[in-house]
Sequence to fold (282 residues):
Amino acid sequence: MLSNDSIHALTDTHCHILHMINKTTLSAFSNSEIQEIRKILHQASLKNVSNIFEIGTTKIDSVLSIELAKLFKNIFPVIGVHPHEATDNYQNDVLFLKNLLDEHHEKIVGIGECGLDKHYPDHNLNAQIALFKSQIELALKYNKALVVHTRDAEDETYAVLEQYKDQLKRVTIHCYSNSLNFAQQITSWGWFLGIGGTVTYPKNNLLRDVVKTVGINALVLETDAPFLPPQIIRGKQNSPEQIFTIAHYVAELLEISFEDVASVTTANAEKLFQASTSTDVA
Ligand SMILES: [Zn+2]
Fold:
């Protein structure tokens, strides 16, 4: 069970604490790094953000996310390689992830972020597709949640996911930024949309329409910290405590109570990740 001992416990389903503290090399956490992380978690706990999912983007931060989860009970590790990292050598990455899964099967709760991203002109789409499919296969083989990243590649992402829609049960489309039609398809398969700070951006009527159309039962909340700060702190570093801001915003948008947003999205996160570690925020 995710922690919802305290009333209205919130869950950040997509965070990069390692990026927040600029930890990019494979080494033990220093005392000052641990202090920094404690501070982030403490600030989050003051806003009732009790569960945080640390998402991998590279081999290094996948390893470190597992180490983080060993140190802090309310951090849950998700391991994966981001499409920006896709090379023709992708099989090495897949093998690396597979070895981590064999070694830390109990601890790891998901695979990702993985997917397709055509935003930059030098993307290697073939390698991205191969790496994405391999990570989907890992999620299936090890029965883990799948955390999907898709940017400027809706059709290609749909084509891949559609092939697995009957087998994959636990999926979130992180930082949802796709069409209403895609949202309706994805949620009809029982999958979740990850909603974060971008829903608060003045121009983002499309995402607000998506949220209103699919409803709270199809949503999980995320910050993607240190990226994508909500409008009230735009330009500053994002952090997991901002789930509180996002939850309030979604409550107003859907005209439901904050308590309902908190309890439903935390329950959805629990369904998504089947995270079994009970947590206490220090
Ligand atoms: Zn991310």
